[in-house]
Amino acid sequence: xxxxxxxxxxxxxxxxxxxxxxxxxxxxxxxxxxxxxxxxxxxxxxxxxxxxxxxxxxxxxxxxxxxxxxxxxxxxxxxxxxxxxxxxxxxxxxxxxxxxxxxxxxxxxxxxxxxxxxxxxxxxxxxxxxxxxxxxxxxxxxxxxxxxxxxxxxxxxxxxxxxxxxxxxxxxxxxxxxxxxxxxxxxxxxxxxxxxxxxxxxxxxxxxxxxxxxxxxxxxxxxxxxxxxxxxxxxxxxxxxxxxxxxxxxxxxxxxxxxxxxxxxxxxxxxxxxxxxxxxxxxxxxxxxxxxxxxxxxxxxxxxxxxxxxxxxxxxxxxxxxxxxxxxxxxxxxxxxxxxxxxxxxxxxxxxxxxx
Length: 356
Fold this sequence. Notes:
27% of the residues lie in helices and 27% in strands. By secondary structure, the protein is of the alpha+beta class. It starts with 12 loop residues before the first helix and ends in a 10-residue tail after the last helix. The model is unreliable at 1-5 (pLDDT under 50).
């Protein structure tokens, strides 16, 4: 695998690009899974895939203590629910979309006969009446144009085919921008940590999960199957540090380091775990910030109480423009997340008391 690192980045940008540009909506993460399996096969002792499609690469430690690290592979997308006689597609959302960002976007339709390019149409403003101008946009109003007549489309596309946004991942100044950084940038950080971990004191399960965007489903299954002594999840978090957003609603800032989660709407992380994460960051001189996320859930919650109570922590990568095709993360925050996760795992002996 080529290791291509743009100026200023201390990580394998080419792998990150492959992960983010691959398509993989909830339940259909196959293309991403292939990249993950390839890396984990080289960096862990065993690799297994379960019936849902979760991938677990395990590095065996000396003792009985087990740690699960999780990041989800799926991205938000769509499923075709109707094909009109004229060849336009109507969609059902897989995950949470803001319909305002969909207009005039290029998409890929994944059919049994291969991938097709389409676009989400937009009515020219010249022809809109006042009622249409005032109408709130909704996902159910989205129409995909394939540039083909109805008979041609019917030969290619069927109800149940999948649709993903089409976008490349590029370096933009000190940042990385593209689609599906939620949560492929964290899958990437987990894989980079797996590359650095050698002969740990505890057994570490590196878990690439599925169906997070539709209810943390993969993580909940793994919480039962693995039943770890400690779980740490990785996900992106809100960085609305842009003009027009008040400071109290920005949550995190780009370039200020890895975000150590205190809470989101699905989980309150275990105090002794997030305190140790902060201690590890401080001892290692790793740039970090804290995260209090008012809304949104992560795989952290999938492990906390699925198979009895489990201590949990979470590290987040601050990301602007979440759930769009221009999600943007700072290179230094990605580096800091990899460094913090690696340092935390290297210093986990199984002897830390996370009880309350």
